[in-house]
Amino acid sequence: MLNYDVIIVGSGAGGVFMAYEFTKINKNIKVCIIDRGGPIGKRICPIDGKKITSCIHCKTCSIMNGFGGAGGMSDGKYNITNNFGGDLYTHTGKELAIELMEYVDKVNLEMGGGDAKLYSTVTSDIKAEALKYDLHLLDAKVRHLGTDRNRQILQNIYDYVKESVDIHFYEEVSSIEKNDGRFSVETDKDTYTASQVVIAAGRSGSKWISGICEKFGIETKSNRVDIGVRVEIPAAVFEHITSKVYESKIVYRTKKYGDLVRTFCMNPYGEVVNENTNGIITVNGHSYSDPKYHTENTNFALLVSNTFSEPFKDSNLYGESIARLSNMLGGGVLVQRFGDLVAGRRTNDHRFSQCFLTPTLKATPGDLSLVIPKRQLDDIIEMIYALDKIAPGMANDDTLLYGVEVKFYNSKILVDENLETSVKGLYVIGDGSGVTHSLSQASASGVYVARLISDLY
Ligand SMILES: Cc1cc2nc3c(=O)[nH]c(=O)nc-3n(C[C@H](O)[C@H](O)[C@H](O)COP(=O)(O)OP(=O)(O)OC[C@H]3O[C@@H](n4cnc5c(N)ncnc54)[C@H](O)[C@@H]3O)c2cc1C
């Protein structure tokens, strides 16, 4: 049995920045992190770069688990804004939320971010141009670290914190108990005790977190799920936008249904990749900062939000069911040419081989209309035509649509302004809380709670 003051479950963005802050504050608080994944250097997806389209379901998924969490293999786009990426500000206040995100940005730069460029929508003329077509560009600053630099920064943070924080890799936390004011945390290898436990288990820990909440009687509320596709186009089509703002969050209200569709996670010169959430394969994207790894394509998601209330409440289950359907038909991710989709035909191997665009992910050519419900698909098609007005070429026949992209949001866990649950000493931070859904805000929540806990000592 190992005894600590604070146990952090999960070494994703939230857990890493919490460990950083405890180390920085240096009050000799005994802290450990437990993660079911491994160190950043050992995180390698075994099918990456191989001619395999379907996931081989490793015991722990290297893309989602381990030091750096879901963001460890990402290209580290840190958006500094209260406009999207979560609503941490509803707990901290708007000013402090921005301050915390700026602090995280500063640490990233100190830890190897160096000259990574900061982009801003505020100074760009794209906003006015987009408005002409009812396309709304949200204000944000974004630092793009790049996949390669992001990994190095995480390694540097690990080297900094490891002297003062114990990090237990490849251990999965199964249960948390509270007896006589102290927590006991059980893993598949050991038992730990602490007076404070911080759950930072992210989206991949969503089911486990729900079980913990149920056990302690902590209230949760169903969140939304976003469904859509990942679009891949020649980088030249969006170059005039990405060179100025890098990642543009553009929102459009469709004429047909009045639904909001938005662009998300834009990766100029990037790659489309698989994502694994609880064994379901969906799609995502990233891009390197080093031009030698650049592709000729840009990718981004087009997403439609869905929230359910009665009698069905489980938004994530809805998203999972749609993703499972694509996994069933394609063995993983499906890919379709936009021209085939609007013509109502499947993209088969023959049509796919004649595509002018070279795909960056090996996916199964197929028919997304058999997977994505009509409403969301109509929304996406309408958005593609709208974007074609500011980025001609967007609606070309060879524009590739990978599906499905699903953004799962954890149930909103009832936490107070300190991100503490109704169980004293039990905190939930990052995406696992349903409060954040981005690297900046998850990291900021870790810094925030580390400071609050440090004040208790
Ligand atoms: C491919 C990809 C690209 C992305 N790109 C971006 C981006 O550019 N910008 C952006 O803002 N966001 C991006 N995101 C989202 C971003 O990664 C998340 O918002 C962020 O990582 C959330 O941090 P977190 O600490 O809350 O959780 P996570 O990063 O998910 O970390 C949770 C950790 O908890 C561990 N864990 C879970 N359950 C247990 C358990 N029971 N026992 C032990 N350990 C457990 C997991 O192994 C994991 O390491 C991306 C996500 C993916 C998958």
Description:
- The structure is a single chain.
- The chain has 457 residues and is an alpha/beta fold.
- It has 2 domains: 242 residues, FAD/NAD(P)-binding domain; 184 residues, no CATH class.
- Bound molecules: flavin-adenine dinucleotide.
- Flavin-adenine dinucleotide binds next to α1, β4, β17, β18 and α12.
- The site of flavin-adenine dinucleotide has 45 residues, from α1, β4, β17, β18 and α12.
Q: Approximately how much helix is present in the residues? A: 25-40%
Cofactors, ions, other ligands: flavin-adenine dinucleotide
For this entry, what is the oligomeric state of its chains?
single chain
User: Kindly, what is the distance between the CA atoms of the first and last residues, rounded to a whole number of angstroms?
Assistant: 23 Å
Principal-axis shape equals globular
Instruction: Indicate the CATH topology of the largest domain.
Output: FAD/NAD(P)-binding domain
Just give the CATH class of the largest domain: Alpha Beta
The CATH superfamily label of the largest domain reads FAD/NAD(P)-binding domain
Give the helix tally: 12
Q: Pick out the low-confidence regions.
A: none
**Which architecture of the largest domain would the CATH scheme give at its second level?**
3-Layer(bba) Sandwich
